[in-house]
């Protein structure tokens, strides 16, 4: 970097810093103080390298310096965004030393074949029917129902399509049989080669076809993920731990049809994971700009509303350190047929027939007082109080939650500090990394016996 560019860089950060100092907010991964001097940025970069296991060839000092320049540019993008009035925020993550072109080349991998592009073949019964929406709950999270395995990491292999497909298979298998089994992406990477291309890309519908033809798929434990394509292990391929009967495709370009499908099970979708905002996303409801060239397969595991914004809960395959513990909340009902980032264009899900296992007994509700109750496994928080009397109760959707002083939000017990201005729950006042604030729902009136 020449002297003129360096001065412009520092001046731009100084102007942003003056605004940041006037506001009290938490930023993920750095503090405004880190931006004052280039020496502090160097220390921040070194700390980030250690935390993310980044080691550059000592014989190539120019490579480390190039990564530092990319890191600074990404930090500038993060900081400028976080100073604005947005429904989501950005932060440093393990991709912060990558250009967006590098990021897309390594971390996506969806390939839409000609057969799918020319016309989708097997529509589900989920169509754009307003009448069918009446019985659907206003929010749903399949994680809370035990139908979602922990977030996985595809690494630098373009196998997103395999992770999206296995997520759908795992979800419907749990719903039908009662057993949550993590199934093998590596089997798909190695063995599903008729139309898919391993780490070079593939498509969820092809993966479903492979599992049906193979009469099942092995478990993750038996055929673990390696992050690269190898020869198909035929003995593992013949180990059929989980089976499906087929797959269906949801009517394209319809928020309502996709909502009906997700209300029944986790659904595989294709998106365009484009733009630095997606690469550096750290939390909130994502409303960033993206296009229609789908390049990434992910899994919708639920939906809800936050601050008047409807959203999808999307499970990614970039590890738990990205986004909201590996998830992103993407705007739903974005006012465009294809949906934000074209999320409505290619939804599909695995089909498994069978008789669901017995439902567990329903636990008793949480009684706030004689006249108000909340669902089980939740916490009562007073929404409106006069003197010592609570006149209106709300329900925080977790046990032993901490009710915030604004009478609207709540935090989990392991992140008990409410930071409403940043939309975060913190572990302690010194650690600015946290989880999202939760919004309580009104309690249900209880007719006293």
From TrEMBL:
Q: What is this protein called?
A: Uncharacterized protein
- The species this protein was found in: Diphasiastrum complanatum
Lineage per the UniProt record: Eukaryota, Viridiplantae, Streptophyta, Embryophyta, Tracheophyta
């Amino acid at each position: 970097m020449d002297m003129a560019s360096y001065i412009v860089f520092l001046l731009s950060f100084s102007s942003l810093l003056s605004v940041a100092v006037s506001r009290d907010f938490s930023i993920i991964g750095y503090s405004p103080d880190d931006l004052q001097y280039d020496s502090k940025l160097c220390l921040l970069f070194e700390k980030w390298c250690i935390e993310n296991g980044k080691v550059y060839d000592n014989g190539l000092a120019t490579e480390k310096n190039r990564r530092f320049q990319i890191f600074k540019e990404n930090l500038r993008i993060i900081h400028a965004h976080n100073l604005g009035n947005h429904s989501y925020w950005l932060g440093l993550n393990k991709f912060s030393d990558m250009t967006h072109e590098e990021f897309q080349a390594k971390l996506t991998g969806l390939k839409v074949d000609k057969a799918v592009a020319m016309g989708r073949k097997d529509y589900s019964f989920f169509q754009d029917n307003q009448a069918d929406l009446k019985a659907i709950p206003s929010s749903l999270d399949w994680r809370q129902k035990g139908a979602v395995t922990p977030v996985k990491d595809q690494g630098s292999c373009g196998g997103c399509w395999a992770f999206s497909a296995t997520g759908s298979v795992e979800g419907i298998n749990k719903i039908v049989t009662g057993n949550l089994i993590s199934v093998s992406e590596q089997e798909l990477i190695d063995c599903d080669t008729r139309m898919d291309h391993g780490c070079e890309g593939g498509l969820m519908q092809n993966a479903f076809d492979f599992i049906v033809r193979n009469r099942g798929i092995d478990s993750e434990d038996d055929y673990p993920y390696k992050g690269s394509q190898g020869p198909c292990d035929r003995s593992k391929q013949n180990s059929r731990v989980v089976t499906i009967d087929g797959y269906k495709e949801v009517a394209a370009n319809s928020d309502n049809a996709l909502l009906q499908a997700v209300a029944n099970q986790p659904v595989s979708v294709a998106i365009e994971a484009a733009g630095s905002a997606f690469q550096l996303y750290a939390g909130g409801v994502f409303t960033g700009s993206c296009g229609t060239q789908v390049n990434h397969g992910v899994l919708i595991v639920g939906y809800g509303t936050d601050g008047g914004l409807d959203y999808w809960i999307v499970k990614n395959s970039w590890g738990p350190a990205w986004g909201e513990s590996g998830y992103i909340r993407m705007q739903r009902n974005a006012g465009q047929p294809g949906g934000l980032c074209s999320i409505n264009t290619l939804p599909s899900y695995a089909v498994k027939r069978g008789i669901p296992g017995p439902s567990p007994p329903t636990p008793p509700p949480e009684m706030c007082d004689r006249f108000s109750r909340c669902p089980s496994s939740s916490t009562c928080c007073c929404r409106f109080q006069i003197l010592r009397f609570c006149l209106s109760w709300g329900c925080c959707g977790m046990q032993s939650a901490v009710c915030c002083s604004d009478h609207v939000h709540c935090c989990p017990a392991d992140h008990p500090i409410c930071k409403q201005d940043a939309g975060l729950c913190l572990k302690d006042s010194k650690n600015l990394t946290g989880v999202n604030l939760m919004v309580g729902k009104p309690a249900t009136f209880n007719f006293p016996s």
